[in-house]
Request: fold
Amino acid sequence: MHAVNPGNAAVDTTTRINPDVMSAITKKELVRDQRFVLKGWKSDLKGTRVIDLAGNDISGLLAPKIENGVVTMAQPIRPFIMKSRVPQTVALNAQTDTVLPGGMIMALPADHGSPVKAIWFRLFCSISPRPAPWNENENSYVTEIKFTVRPTEDSPERINLPHPVTVSLEFDGMTAKDIPTFTIEQAGLEHQKVIPLHFLPSTMQPKLMVRSTVSDSDLTIEALPRLELRPARTVVLGFGLETVAIAVAPVRADGQPQTTASPANVDVQVRGAARRESTEDVVIPAGGAHAEFVVRSSGLGKITVQTTVGALTATTELNQRFPTGPLIAALLGGALGGLARRWVKGARKRSATRNVLEGVVVGLVAFVAAVLGVGYLHLPAAIAATEAGAFLTGVLCGFAGVTVFSAITERLKTGSEK
Reply:
């Protein structure tokens, strides 16, 4: 911290100021009959807070006013802070760091009759990458915010920050993990603080609320649109027994649908033991907000589906499972249906074991046919693939199958006797 002395004495800009820097600035610490020109402040003085490092309002003591188009005020021998009473909304520059309004001021004493020099320590901010890209692995937007304290360009080369700058971050129009309050101890790039930001916007204009010792600002945060894949379900029966419909939709950063101005082709890639059900192109129509395609399982294990629309890409995973439940239900249903054939009035007596085996075989075949959409029961494939649907299919088809086998057997016997 710096010791700033009145008069024309030389100033050692590398010397730290006294530990009592956090005490209130009093009238005794003003350079008598000395006012200086404060360059770099363009806001209305009515909406400005002038405080010392202890947080005390000293606007009455320093009496800032506009004279001949410039701001002048009484000269204190210790640093003080000027910032807006109401947080200012700031749009970040695209190419360079953005200076936030407000700052810490040191009025260096005049040397040999030269004007008093006011050194500003200001908080600079940048975000990279910008706009923030979507990270599928974290299911959020990810970027980095960089904060740096810098003195004005015409300040002495080795000047130190008079007092650490404390910064806290809050969120408006977005959700994110809490970021602990941090402190910047010194000015310069080597003391820059890099803060990772993982967030989900809830409005089209989310803001990062920066509250610091020297500046209160609301930074507008930009995020890219993204692509979403929405499978009807994430677990399907393997071995080609089930299909799943997948919708692909471009959405804005806040999650709302984004319509396309012209038809948008969707490139679909399926990796794993699965395939697309149709070879037709997938297209989001003009004015539409989504398109849909169907994937059929083929084997077991994970399926990775990736879609690309322009520069946007989305990926989802499906899991193919062994059809244990429906398969057992179909076998039990087939066995029960075959066995029930023995008690039909007029049915010829046959071995119970034979009826059960025939019912099991027919029930299994009927189950596979039903989930492939080939069955005679006209059950929707999605229902036939459930345990209840498989059991019903097995019972009815097992019963009917044993009846048919019995009729065929009787005809064969009659023919052989002739």
User: Anything to note?
Assistant: The mean pLDDT is 83. The first strand starts at residue 30 and ends at 38. The CA atoms of residues 26 and 61 lie 8 Å apart. DSSP finds five helices and 26 strands in the chain.
